[in-house]
Amino acid sequence: MKIKFSLLKYLLPAILWAIFILVLTTSSNGGFVTQRLLGIPTDLLGHAFIFSILVFFIMQGLIKYWRFSFFLRKIQLYGLLFGFLYGVLIEFIQYYFTVNRTADYADVIANSIGCLVGLVLFKSVYNDLKFLDKE
Fold it and tell me: Using CA atoms, how far apart are residues 83 and 66, in angstroms rounded to an integer?
């Protein structure tokens, strides 16, 4: 029981962020009109941003839980896989369970790009994990 609780403790920011994403992507868009920034629709930039933060939080929680650098590839794989699958799940939820929201392939691609950005962000912050092995 203690092991599961400590994992939950480390993944709490990711879980709260995932709930925030679910609420944000299933609630009414309030007549949001998509603008463009550098030729890219701002809603796609928003998707990429929120999923990059999600993947970063997942990887950060897992590295704090496992505390060894040799788990790095596993952590990166789990973070990317969960982020991608969650993005696809959100689109299915929008398609089947919401009235005023629609699923879009471009959103899945933006979510996936955001997951990769989250990986790059994680690597830039935690670039040298060898310090974990000394404890």
Answer: 19
